[in-house]
Amino acid sequence: MRHFGHIPAAVRAGLFHREPAAFDADSPAPVLAAALGATLYSPATRPRLAADIRKQAGRGVVSMVLCLEDSIADGDVEAAEENLVRRLTELAGQGGETPLLFVRVREPEQIPDLVHRLGDAASLLSGFVLPKFTEERGVPFLEALTAAEAASGRRLFAMPVLESPELLHLETRTETLAGIARTVDKYRDRVLALRLGVTDFCSAYGLRRAPDMTAYDVQIVASVIGDVVNTLGRSDGTGFTITGPVWEYFKVQERMFKPQLRRSPFLEGEAEELRTALIEHDLDGLLREIGLDRANGLQGKTCIHPSHVLPVHALSVVSHEEYGDARDILRPERGGGGVLRSAYTNKMNEVKPHRAWAERTLLRAEVFGVAGEDVGFVELLAAGLAGLQE
């Protein structure tokens, strides 16, 4: 699979200076972590789950979570498990390409049980999402994952979700973060990425952000995101990929504040119509939050609606300017450090402080590609939307 693979090759060639590279479930973990992009969640109760997965793969989705936890009622768990096993077995029998598939479980014992019940169809799984992760709760999950991996002979990754009240509450946050850090470090080879459960954070205080506000406008949420990145997202080799929080809006609602999407990138051709459509679907707030995710050290995003996928991916493409700066910083002759002017003559590139950024940028360029010199988010999003209609 590859990002923007649903776009015709000729169109893709005109958009990218360097096209996104192909990858699959057996690619190295750092590549997969960077490639997750917009991870689309789906309740495991959906009767057409196999067809849904196939459809989303054709629409550019490269990672999905099939949920047995909060998205379904407590009384539906057994039926959801049966449906999941039945539909994944059906999907495995069809062959063809599927996204990276993860199952969000409730309890550790579900992991080996589901892998056993799936049999050969377990080859479709890339791993499991572990809810409400803390040191005490997380160890049994990771032990169950390790056992299931050994029994199946299949590489399985964990994606812990950081969403527990102990992580949010100030008096327990430091200790909880330290415990999480110890746990994921012990199982480092199994942990693909850490996910943030911002909806649960808000729930602990009876909050819900409006569609014209981002997670970073809710100060109590912003503070815990900062502490999670501070502890678990360092670029010194100890850190992990941390993904952006879910954007839970996808339908027009009455606005209190003016749209957040500037007109200037949308002034040519039919771009103004695209801007209007984004605003009408409450996606201007999503775009702003994606930018703030990146600025705060987060990569990719949890998504609960297919309309969110393309904006996340379009904003994940490395710009021609970013790519040029990153390559200049990492040239072998720059190993001794120093300062150089960007080829775009608009900024300073300081080799040692910017090295980690440059390395992360080139990894993102590998999986999401590098836009052409005069290609921006608007062109990428418009081409992606056109590809869905063909």
Question: What is the CATH top level name?
Answer: Alpha Beta
State the separation between the terminal residues, measured CA to CA: 19 Å
- Percent strand equals 5-15%
Helix amount = 40-55%
What's the SSE pattern?
Answer: HEHEHEHEHEHEHHEHHEHHEHHEEHEH
Q: If strands are numbered along the chain, what order do they take across the biggest sheet?
A: 2-3-4-5-6-7-8-9
**How many domains in all?**
1
**What is the number of beta strands?**
12
User: Could you state the CATH homologous superfamily?
Assistant: Phosphoenolpyruvate-binding domains
- Given helix and strand content, the structural type is alpha/beta
Q: How would you characterize the largest beta sheet?
A: 8 strands, parallel, barrel
Mean pLDDT: 90
Outline: globular
Cα gyration radius (Å): 21 Å
Unreliable stretches, pLDDT < 50, 5 or more residues?
252-258
- CATH architecture, please? Alpha-Beta Barrel
